[in-house]
Design goal:
Low-confidence stretches: none
Shape: globular
Number of domains: 1
Strand order of the largest sheet: 4-3-2-1-5-10-11-12-13-14
Order of helices and strands: HEHEEHEHEEEEEHEHEEEHEH
Helix content: 25-40%
Number of strands: 14
Mean pLDDT: 95
Number of helices: 8
Oligomer: single chain
Largest sheet: 10 strands, mixed
Distance between the termini: 24 Å
CATH topology: Glutaconate Coenzyme A-transferase
Length: about 250
């Protein structure tokens, strides 16, 4: 196997989490790359849904945005945005929501709105919510793919754009949110899953060449580590070849 980067390991690990024959509501960026890699490798019948109304999109290159024409040209169907949300997403018909994040906290809450405590005068104003809050609320489960650093992995997000597990297990149910919320967080260092009792993100897998101390140093809270910590299998040559071809065709 040829040498691969941390980003490639992360993307391959994220793609492997997607099961063949399921439906996936895809965010642009790292989630889209991983989802399209999955469809070209182990999950050819993965149904990709984009916010613009494209159902079953099969792009031959990575889309630049949800409005990229290649999504409509290759989709099984194109419907209006209200139908995507009102008929497919909110009733819980989508298996997996695949999201990125600017900030993520220990309970899987996502911020893509503002950095800094003052919403009206933030340090940084981010792109905003888009459809992410509804995806996080209504998909049967949510996967998050994000590069790990203390700037991104914070004890508490500055703004809750997309609700994860609130301040702990049980808050989603109390709010009447139908989906399971974040069940998997894939980073360039490893994989985290919520603790079954508390909902707090716990390190369950390390990527090749990464140690626990590396992950702790990139986390803005006292990270819990599973006693059954695993190693992520290295990307195969086929996975890397397909991924690199996708990136080159961008």
């Amino acid at each position: 196997m040829s040498t691969c980067t941390a980003d490639e390991t992360m993307t391959v690990a994220a793609s492997r989490a997607l099961r063949d024959g399921t439906s996936c509501f895809v965010g642009i960026g790292l989630p889209s790359t991983a989802a399209n890699l999955a469809r070209r490798t182990h999950a050819p019948d993965l149904v990709l849904i984009y916010e613009s109304g494209t159902l079953g999109a099969k792009p031959d290159r990575l889309p630049l945005s949800i409005g990229d024409g290649v999504l409509a040209e290759t989709a099984d169907a194109v419907v209006g945005v209200p139908e995507v949300f009102n008929y497919w997403l909110q009733p819980g018909r989508v298996d997996v929501g695949f999201l990125g994040a600017a900030q993520l906290d220990r309970f899987g809450n996502i911020n893509t709105t503002v950095i800094g405590g003052d919403y009206h005068h933030p340090e940084v104003r981010l792109p905003g919510a888009g459809g992410a809050p509804e995806i996080a609320a209504s998909c049967r489960e949510v996967f998050v793919v994000v590069r790990q650093s203390t700037r991104a992995f914070v004890d508490r997000v500055d703004f809750v754009t997309s609700f994860g597990h609130g301040r702990g297990r049980g808050e989603r149910e109390a709010l009447g949110l139908p989906g399971a919320g974040p069940t998997l967080v894939i980073t360039d260092l490893g994989v985290l899953r919520p603790d079954p009792e508390t909902g707090e993100l716990t390190l369950t897998e390390l990527h090749p060449g990464v140690e626990v101390d590396d992950v702790r140093a990139a986390t803005g809270w006292e990270l819990r580590v599973s006693p059954d910590l695993d190693r992520t299998p290295e990307p195969t040559q086929q996975e890397l070849t397909v991924l690199r071809a996708l990136e080159e065709a961008r």
